[in-house]
Amino acid sequence: MTRDERREHKKTGPDLGNREQVRRLRQAMDRSAEQVLRCQDCGHQQHAEMAMIGPTTACDRCGTPLHSCRHCAHFDTSRATRCRKDIRLAVGAAAANDCEAFEPRLVLDATGKRLGGRRSRDARSDFDSLFR
Fold first, then answer.
1. For 52-66, how does the pLDDT look when each residue is reduced to its tens digit (9 = 90+)?
2. Nearest Cα to Cα of residue 37 among 79, 6, 3, 72
3. Cystine design at 51: which of 57, 100, 102, 104 (Cβ 3.0–4.6 Å)?
4. Do the beta carbons of residue 73 and residue 64 sit within 8 Å?
5. Between the CA of residue 45 and those of 42, 73, 95, 112, 119, what are the distances in Å?
6. What pTM, to 2 d.p., does this model score?
């Protein structure tokens, strides 16, 4: 292997026959990935900054209380109290509560479409814009 070949090999790495997978992975990493709080009823997503929620905070779209066990990171249906934390009484899963152990369950939205991405006008115009 010549010096130039070694240098090129170092830059690109060995070819494992997965160039298409690597291309797709790079393309996915270019998208914006944000942590969001997803409503368990309607699926509406809110930025993580909105995760500082109080007992009366509700979903913008459907009005479901967000300070509830279903939206908590400690929610576990396999436990009797439905909580991984040691609490004395079980709280209703969908009801709003003022539990001190509440931490919002944040998920990673890597699509970049729902929160900040542009909305498609229609499929035909998007297709036509590819060839301009």
1. 788 888 888 999 998
2. 72
3. 104
4. no
5. 9, 16, 19, 12, 15
6. 0.57
Which residue reads 């908590």 in tokens? Answer: 72
- The two structure tokens encoding residue 112: 């970049």
Query: 3-class SS at 56?
Result: coil
Distances (CA, A) of 36 to 1, 10, 59, 98: 49, 38, 13, 21
Encode pLDDT of 75-118 as tens digits.
998 888 889 998 877 777 778 888 888 889 988 876 655 444 44
* Mean pLDDT, residues 28-32: 57
Q: Strand locations in 40-126, DSSP E? A: 45-47, 106-109
Tally of residues, the chain: 132
